[in-house]
Amino acid sequence: SGACTGASTCILSMTAARSATATFTTGDTTPPVVTFSAGSPVGFSSGTIIWSANEPATFQCQLDGGALFPCSSNGTWSYSNLPFGPHAFLVSATDAANNVGTATFNWTIQ
């Protein structure tokens, strides 16, 4: 008998003259790579951040350490009226095998 958790780990138990349990990993264990292809120019309080992943993924985003929120599957996020100072925009990408990759875009509004 056996059981799989997620898309990549399975536990197999066999009963014969002796019992044995083996754990093995199958499938995709590589997280997606998030790349920022363009972003807002430094110094502006409104703009658009653009990103992509190297494989199909769902995205969650975070601004300045706040709560994660679902963000666009087309890889864009527009902002306006942000205050002066440094900002950080994190993108978390989750692929079909539940591997997670993140990247952060940093900029300063002056």
Distance between the termini: 62 Å
The low-confidence runs, each spanning 5 or more residues with pLDDT under 50, are none
Q: SS-based structural class?
A: mainly beta
Strand content: over 45%
Q: Gyration radius, to the nearest Å?
A: 20 Å
Please give the order of strands in the largest beta sheet. 7-6-9-10
Q: What is the number of helices?
A: 0
| Main pleated-sheet profile | 4 strands, antiparallel
Mean pLDDT equals 83
Annotation, overall tally of beta strands: 10
Give the topology string: H per helix, E per strand.
Answer: EEEEEEEEEE
**Proportion in helices:** under 10%
Outline type: elongated
Description of the structure:
This protein has 110 residues and is mainly β. It contains no helices and 10 strands. The strands form 3 sheets. It has a 4-stranded antiparallel sheet, with no helix packed on it.
Give a brief rundown of this model:
This protein is an all-beta fold and 110 residues long. The chain has strands spanning 2-5, 9-15, 19-25, 34-38, 47-53, 58-63, 69-70, 76-79, 85-94, 100-109. It contains no helices and ten strands.
List keywords for this structure.
elongated; 3-stranded antiparallel β-sheet; 110 residues
Write the layout of secondary structure elements.
Elements: E1 2-5, E2 9-15, E3 19-25, E4 34-38, E5 47-53, E6 58-63, E7 69-70, E8 76-79, E9 85-94, E10 100-109
Antiparallel strand pairs: 1-2, 2-3, 4-5, 5-8, 6-7, 6-9, 9-10
